[in-house]
Backbone:
């Protein structure tokens, strides 16, 4: 039938320098995916890092373990499995967190991994999450992360190598009373130490049954560059206009999307809980997509995030001859990440001034009610529906780095107001908010095309990024004008893809839509 649905986000930004806003240490990494081919090599590497804490630079060691195939056929994906990253936060870093009022911490981690076959290179991000962990009264804190590892496919025969780059760690902090601290999250960027064994190499895989050595040529294949400054490429424009076309023979990196419980999925947890209990009309769904940044001639990828939806009852108004009816439906939704109305932290890299690699870590935070309104017509055989998702969201920048050099932007760097879009009905929907539109059609008995609330689909829009405020360095340098001049402005195209929703309130969960623990089974893939 028809239903509106959640939407989201896109937006653009970041563009200048870098930083480490906060306190703690590094880590990285990820989750099971079956290893293939002729045998499995066990990776167990201890890597040195230097991290910037409020108390100063400190050394940390991240131990990464994984199972990687020894050999695969040309064109066969390399699946890395059983990945963990164990990190020990030194006592001064733990004291920094305690000074913010934290009693518990949960970490989301990113390890930038360079992929190479001869001169052809690509980049992958290994993501990880830890369970909530109590801060010790004294001494260090050990965190173990598991998460999601993309598969890598070599396009021709020859040795393919995986090398660890920089780490980032996003910490969500909770006080003893269970409420978020202020700030509720901090981000620390860590650089790999020069003494890393074998230059940080994690593994080498022979591609081709004979282990041939014909190295591929070309440039990276369609993946955003990591924070390492070597070989950076700007993100492509949402509509496919890349500043640097990439070679067809380069390794291909594919985000995994296994079906299973929360700990096995290439997306954050998306389920109702004691803080957000499900009601009789509750849905949940994942969304992902791109948002252009016109001023930087690139696009930011927003990885899959969770939305919790309460659908309204459809209202029918029949035509006088009863040949059909109009349908309207009003629903509400919330972004959801670790019991907060926000997206998970995500990173984007651009070339500012056409040559300076700039990486930013950002969060989209919901500041008011998100609504989903759809209006359509049906003749009881064919139904068409237009859906508008309206979301008041600000963009918060938690860290920046320019050409590998961190720049502290402070704890309150964000857009002054919500991202805004042209509003088709400003009298009924006043105020600043993002607007995304989806159109769906369905013939009875056939799959839906386009966007419907239950089945998902593409949502598109145009967004204006407001001016920034609260962005300043520890020395008092005001960065508001710099970020505003570099990023803020109108006409940024947004395209988000919603996956199939899970109707969690059903007496029996539909296994095609929901996992056993009532999470959305479908994790969508971003489209340009």
Residues:
């Amino acid at each position: 039938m028809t239903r509106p649905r959640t939407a989201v986000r896109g937006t653009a930004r970041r563009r200048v320098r870098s930083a480490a806003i906060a306190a703690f240490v590094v880590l990285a990494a990820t989750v099971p995916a079956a290893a293939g081919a002729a045998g499995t090599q066990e990776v167990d590497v201890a890597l040195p890092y230097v991290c910037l804490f409020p108390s100063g630079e400190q050394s940390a060691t991240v131990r990464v373990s994984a199972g990687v195939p020894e050999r695969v056929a040309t064109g066969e994906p390399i699946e890395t499995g059983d990945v963990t990253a164990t990190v020990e936060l030194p006592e001064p870093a733990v004291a920094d967190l305690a000074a913010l009022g934290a009693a518990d911490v949960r970490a989301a981690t990113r390890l930038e991994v360079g992929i190479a076959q001869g001169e052809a290179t690509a980049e992958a991000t290994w993501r990880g999450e830890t369970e909530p962990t109590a801060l010790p009264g004294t001494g260090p804190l050990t965190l173990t992360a598991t998460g999601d590892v993309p598969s890598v496919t070599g396009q021709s025969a020859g040795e393919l190598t995986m090398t660890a780059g920089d780490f980032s760690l996003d910490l969500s902090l909770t006080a003893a009373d269970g409420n978020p601290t202020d700030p509720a999250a901090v981000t620390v960027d860590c650089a790999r130490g020069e003494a890393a064994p074998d230059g940080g190499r994690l593994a080498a895989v022979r591609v081709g049954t004979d282990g041939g050595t014909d190295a591929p040529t070309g440039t990276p294949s369609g993946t955003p560059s990591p924070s390492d400054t070597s070989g950076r490429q700007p993100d492509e424009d949402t509509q496919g206009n890349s500043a640097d076309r990439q070679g067809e023979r380069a390794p291909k990196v594919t985000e995994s999307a296994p079906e299973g419980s929360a700990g096995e999925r290439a997306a954050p947890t998306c389920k109702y809980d004691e803080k957000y209990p499900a009601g009789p009309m509750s849905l949940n769904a994942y969304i992902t997509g791109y948002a252009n940044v016109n001023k930087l001639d690139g696009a930011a990828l927003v990885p899959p995030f969770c939305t919790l939806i309460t659908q309204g009852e459809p209202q029918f108004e029949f035509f006088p001859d009863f040949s059909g009816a109009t349908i309207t439906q009003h629903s509400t939704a919330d972004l959801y990440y670790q019991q907060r109305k926000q997206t998970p932290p995500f990173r984007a890299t651009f070339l500012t001034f056409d040559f300076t690699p700039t990486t930013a870590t950002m969060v989209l935070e919901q500041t008011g009610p998100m609504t989903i309104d759809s209006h359509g017509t049906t003749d009881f055989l064919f139904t068409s529906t237009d859906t508008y998702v309206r979301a008041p969201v600000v963009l918060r920048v938690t860290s920046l780095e320019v050409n590998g050099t961190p720049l502290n932007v402070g704890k309150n760097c964000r857009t002054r107001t919500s991202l805004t879009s042209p509003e088709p009905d400003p009298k009924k929907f006043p105020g600043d908010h993002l607007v995304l539109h989806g159109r769906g059609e369905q013939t009875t008995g056939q799959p839906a095309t386009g966007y419907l609330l239950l089945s998902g689909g593409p949502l598109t829009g145009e967004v204006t990024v407001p001016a920034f405020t609260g962005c300043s360095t520890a020395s008092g340098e005001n960065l508001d004008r710099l970020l505003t001049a570099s990023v803020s402005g109108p006409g940024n195209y947004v395209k988000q893809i919603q996956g199939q929703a899970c109707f969690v309130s059903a007496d029996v969960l539909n296994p095609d839509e929901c996992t056993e623990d009532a999470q959305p089974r479908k994790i969508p893939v971003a489209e340009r």
About this structure: Residues 467 and 484 are 5 Å apart (CA to CA).
